[in-house]
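Checklist before submission:
- one chain only
- standard amino acids only
- sequence pasted in full

Submission:
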Amino acid sequence: MKLREICETLDISRRALQGYEKAGLVSATGRNKYGHLLYDETAKLRIEKIKFYQQLGFSLKEISSLIDAPNIVVKEALEKQVEKLKNERTEKDKLIEKANQMIAALVNENNHK
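Returned file contents:
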């Protein structure tokens, strides 16, 4: 796949992919006769994994230590990240509830004016 195709297929920007390359996480697997960068299926799968790790909140530096790590290391990092995300969700749920209470109070206040 050409650079443009890989970006469209995986819904990532060219700049993001270049960042992955700069961080040493992935590299093009060749060039076609027109000089366009090409990526094979292995590179595509690697880019998908990088994107997923980013969505989970890992930095590129953290991803570079995880991408080729043994499964046990990846498993532990994922479990820790999931716990962190659960805690963040709990905190956000509390904020949403507090905001909803404030909205209700404002509505009640307006109804009594």
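Reviewer check: The beta strands are 30-31, 37-38.
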